[in-house]
Design brief:
By secondary structure, the protein is an alpha+beta fold. Helix content is 23%, strand content 22%. A two-stranded antiparallel ribbon has the order 1-4.
């Protein structure tokens, strides 16, 4: 599975960071950033999907 963030939609609410702090971090522009290349292993898939679903700006996409 692969995650991506649509930066033009991200409002920096931080729900993704609270739900999956090892996958996301806050960037210098107050937008969420992915840690690494966005690839998510099976063990973290459920948390990644929960974080994406919780994004009020619907800025996180999931492929796979």
């Amino acid at each position: 599975m692969k995650l991506y963030i649509e930066l033009e939609k991200c409002c920096g609410f931080g729900e993704c960071i609270a739900l999956a702090p090892d996958l996301f971090r806050m960037g210098g522009d107050n937008r969420a950033q992915l840690i690494g290349d966005g690839a998510v292993n099976q063990a973290d898939e459920e948390r990644a999907r929960t974080a994406a679903f919780a994004c009020p700006a619907e800025a996180i996409g999931v492929d796979g």
